[in-house]
Design brief:
Blueprint: H1 5-24, E1 37-38, H2 41-56, H3 60-75, H4 78-89, H5 94-107, E2 117-121, E3 124-132, E4 135-139, H6 145-158, E5 162-166, H7 172-188, E6 196-199, H8 204-212, E7 216-222, H9 225-232, E8 237-241, E9 247-250, H10 256-268, E10 280-284, H11 285-297, E11 300-302, H12 306-316, E12 317-318, E13 321-322, H13 331-336, E14 348-352, H14 358-361, E15 368-374, H15 377-388, E16 394-398, H16 402-412, E17 416-419, E18 439-440, E19 446-447, E20 454-462
Parallel strand pairs: 1-6, 4-5, 4-7, 5-6, 7-8, 9-10, 9-16, 10-15, 11-14, 14-15, 16-17
Antiparallel strand pairs: 2-3, 3-20, 12-13, 18-19
Helix pairs in contact: 3-5, 3-6, 3-7, 4-5, 4-7, 5-6, 6-7, 10-11, 15-16
Bound molecules: nicotinamide-adenine-dinucleotide (NAD).
Length: 468
């Protein structure tokens, strides 16, 4: 048989299809992934390394094109990813998750984030450039699985890297789907295959392999304290985006009606899964009753009975830690399990507690919001600081007193501080600034974007090119 260029391509495509089929059916000897999904860490890293070299050797406009394609292509799958995330993890709200994906697509910075810096003078011209690390290992959470994959992919590719994702095993389907869709978008843009990859069986063991792999030059962990500690002690450049316990302080100068609306909206957003969401209210005594009254008007259900509060703590905690069964669940579902039937309009469960109550101290990630009364704003600042545990993650305040606002900001030292707005204003939803789902408090990058995933390099030209 004569094989011309056209049917040669057909034959190659058929062979590739068969190989991919084998790969999906579990043959570990085949070393090509499908849509960025590989069997082993070794294969995934090797493929990513090759893709990164190709990207690095291309023009910046290639990265730009890929990111544009990710934004356009993924915009068609916002609802699917939101539904899949809620169905698989049992956590969050579809409407809010869809919004989270949408802002990620629209407001995660691309290549424009990489600005060069120059010095020039008698000795010549020196340029500081933001350059890629190479292959990044990114560990992602169950609470924002596909949102994190999307925003990390955009930022990491913009900085010229490839990325191997290690998703939470509890969000495997959603995470793999997000990786597949990003791969489709890269292909549509004509970008290198396997710039964004993952493994088909996420596990702590595979994550550890990824962290130790010599070709992985940077680690980015978005999750709880365990994984952040792991990457920070890896000996590699690491970004740690860890847990928080954000307080919201309300003083007597605040617009109480607005504060109540904002707090319920922020706390109940995706059923309190975002690490930035309001986790406890610290309210000045003189306005606390009115604040509670207004919160009730906006979807908060007040529990006054001590026995019911106790019952709520019994079911929502397991061995002193948040019970996974209730993490990210609707307030209505949680209330039902302590014998209280309410309608869909209830979004948050509120109660007055002391500052030592477990609901105030623990990061529950549930729409349960304790309210702690203080005599004045100054005491409120102390209590808020105590409850944030020095994590320096996120805090909110509703006040019009400049001295209080200033003192709160200085004392809290949080990576995000939202004044007179809901917590999500801090990640660009109704507040100025870009969006990210990797907020790096422990390692100091803050709200990560492309420049956080880039190495700063200095190129010095001696004795020329200065035109001063
Ligand atoms: P998690 O810590 O259980 O898991 C996060 C990721 O780390 C997963 O991929 C998991 O498989 C992996 N992992 C966990 N322990 C590990 C270990 N010892 N070694 C290696 N890998 C490990 O967190 P989660 O429940 O999925 O997410 C919720 C937590 O993440 C909350 O504490 C929340 O505040 C935090 N979070 C922080 C940010 C941020 O930007 N700062 C964003 C989202 C979530």
């Amino acid at each position: 048989m004569n094989i011309d260029a056209n049917n040669m391509e057909t034959v190659v495509n058929l062979i590739m299809k068969e190989l991919n089929k084998l790969n999906l059916e579990g043959d570990n000897t085949v070393c090509c992934g499908k849509n960025g999904v590989f069997h082993s860490v070794e294969e995934a890293v090797a493929a990513a390394k090759k893709a990164q070299r190709e990207l690095f050797d291309s023009r910046l406009e290639v990265r730009d094109k890929i990111i544009k394609s990710i934004r356009e292509h993924l915009a068609k799958y916002v609802q699917e990813l939101a539904e899949l995330g809620v169905a698989e993890t049992g956590m969050g709200r579809v409407y809010d998750k869809a919004l989270k994906h949408q802002v990620t697509i629209e407001k995660t910075p691309g290549v424009e984030d990489l600005r060069a810096f120059a010095f020039s003078g008698d000795d010549g011209l020196t340029v500081l450039e933001l350059t890629p690390y190479g292959v990044i290992g990114a560990i992602t959470p169950s609470t924002n699985p596909s949102e994190t994959i999307l925003c990390n992919s955009i930022g990491m590719i913009a900085a010229g890297n490839a990325v191997v994702f290690a998703p939470h095993p509890g969000a495997k389907k959603t995470s793999l789907r997000a990786v597949e869709l990003v791969n489709e978008a890269i292909r549509l843009a004509g970008g290198p295959e396997n710039l964004v990859v993952t493994i088909d069986e996420p596990s702590i063991e595979n994550t550890n392999k990824l962290m130790a792999h010599p070709d992985v030059k940077m680690l980015v962990a978005t999750g709880g304290p365990g994984v952040v500690k792991s990457v920070m002690s890896s000996g590699k450049k690491a970004i740690g985006a860890g847990a928080g316990n954000p307080p919201v302080l309300v003083d007597e100068t605040a617009d109480i009606e607005k504060a109540a609306r904002d707090i319920v909206a922020g706390c109940s957003f995706d059923n309190n899964l975002p690490c930035i969401a309001e986790k406890e209210v610290v309210a000045v005594d003189s306005i606390t009753d009115y604040l509670i009254f207004e919160m009730q008007k906006n979807g908060a259900y007040l529990i006054k009975d001590e026995e019911q509060i106790k019952k709520l703590a019994e079911i929502t905690l397991k061995n002193g830690e948040p019970n996974r069964k209730y993490v990210g669940r609707d307030a209505k579902v949680i209330l039902k399990d302590i014998g209280i039937e309410v309608g869909d309009e209830v979004r948050v469960i509120i109660m007055e507690t002391c500052k030592k109550h477990v609901f105030a101290v623990k990061e529950m990630l549930m729409p349960i919001l304790p309210i702690i009364r203080v005599k004045d704003a100054w005491e409120g600042i102390e209590v808020s600081k105590e409850l944030e545990h020095g994590l320096r993650h996120t805090s909110m305040i509703h006040s019009k007193n400049i001295d209080v606002l200033t003192k709160y900001a200085r004392e809290m030292e949080t990576t995000i501080l939202v004044k007179n707005g809901p917590s999500y204003a801090g990640i660009g939803v109704g507040g100025e600034g870009h969006t990210t789902f990797t907020i790096a408090g422990p390692t100091g990058e803050g709200l990560t974007s492309a420049k956080s995933f880039a190495r700063n390099r200095r190129c010095v030209l001696v004795g020329g090119l200065s035109i001063k």
